[in-house]
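Summary for the steering committee. The consortium agreed at its last meeting that each partner would contribute one worked example illustrating the joint modelling workflow. Our contribution is presented below. We chose a case with several input lines so that the handling of multiple components could be demonstrated. No manual editing was applied between input and output; the record is shown as generated.
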Amino acid sequence: MVARARSMIPTLLKTHETMVLTSWMKSQVTAGSLRSGQMKEDELKDQSERFLREFVHALESGETNDISGATWSSVRDLLAEVSRSRAAQGFSPSQTATFVFSLKEPVFTLLRDEIKDDAAKLAEEMWTATTLVDKLGLYTTEVYQLRRDDIIKRQAQELLELSTPVVQLWDKILALPLIGTLDSERTQTVMENLLNSIVHSGAEIAIIDITGVPTVDTLVAQHLIKTVSAARLMGADCIISGIRPQIAQTIVHLGLQLDVISKATMADAFALALRRTGQVVNRAQTKPT
Amino acid sequence: MEQIPILKVGRCLLVSIQIDMHDKLAMALQDDLTQKLVETRARGVLIDISALDLVDSFIGRMLSNIAAMARVLDAQTVVVGMRPQVAITLVELGLTLPGIQTALDVDRGLALISKLMDEPEGDRGARGAH
Amino acid sequence: MHVERTSTLEVRTSEDVVRVRQEVRNRSAAVGFSLVDQTKFVTAASEIARNTIDHGGGGSARIETITIPGKRGLRLVFEDQGPGIADIELAMQDGYSTAGGLGMGMPGSKRLSNEFYVESAPGKGTKITLVRWKSV
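What follows is the complete predicted structure of the assembly.
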């Protein structure tokens, strides 16, 4: 490939920085970037200024094609930052990408004004500008998507933690009512909650109630066993309760070896737990009047 | 090379592992404990791992070996103070340390060892493998 | 993929294994792994570092902080010029071991990582790569 002459864009952008910034801000605002007060004008100005600076700096290195290398890393980081904050503020992916795409207009205007006598040069610079801005805009969208995915995952995680409460039933006895299926991610959360509760409460027995678990297959059984093993490593024994008749049948049919005491009801499990921890619950004597 | 101190508390040997052990040190501890067990005729070994932020397969094997050797010498082993994140990792690794009793802390560990040491000798074989 | 930071450690003695653990611990904390994830990854590193010494005759560990759009993580690359692994599939089975251990170094480490790659052939040395991403 024929080596291209250095692009004029960085020099032009530096010389006309203020004008480009103003007109870029204007196109962003027109495109709705400040809609309903989600973002303040100062913040937008600050992001735009910093982007222009990094953009020029990266262009000055001579790399105008590949934005994945080290010269463009500051620009990428900045775009990732913009993308993340827009995603968190509730902007759509295209609105976020507008940050970058709306830079085209002021840059093209600048190029047309400054490169008047060389049509080939103008075409070449405009091509450089457009492909670069396109790549950066697409990068912004990519990061946006990933960030939204992260937010959704985190919300799912929080939901997960809310749905695996650990309850202290009695001195030294914890109960863990499981609702819903037990997949490997949920098992991690369950184990963390349970083990932390064991530490905080000094529990010696944990009753894991599976009334709310729809099916127990080989995988679910493995997850249960993992949880029981982890609790045992911390000195707490487990009792599984809430075994419905169908579950009992499935366990036998699949030949699952649940190496742990199991009871049909939480009440039975609790009674056993009391006995094993040497505790007794007495009925209060009514005083003779 | 540093040595991990082993204390005698009543009829028990108490080891508190405070540092990130390298393999040679772990082996030395194993040897030291076995020797002390024979010397003191202790009936229990309490290993406090509350300061360990990591137990890998080598250390796990060390603990299992100690428990096995102690059993041969008619002593009980209790491991105490495992941190939640260590327990979760061990379970993921597939190491469940069978044959080792565990307790939440030193107090409970000593209580458990007392209970185990006071059991009639015939019964002791039936208990244990978790 | 972009490599933000790299450090390389020798893995020849049992003290080196401790150094690897500490470096991976520090870097995991810097990337922002949760405590459980840190412990898992450091344990995986400890297992493979030990394998590098016991099976590979010693080698090196490269610890890299890596980023892809929206994600940051840690990549560990353990290399040795040892005899290599004849049957990788067999080595990845739980309970298999040629050194008299419990044989859970590799399959266990795989479970403790998000990504796990083995490149090895008899006489060609071994390269094991582990990656863990910061979860949200």
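Confidence is low (pLDDT under 50) at residues 123-130 of chain B. Chain B has one domain: 6-124.
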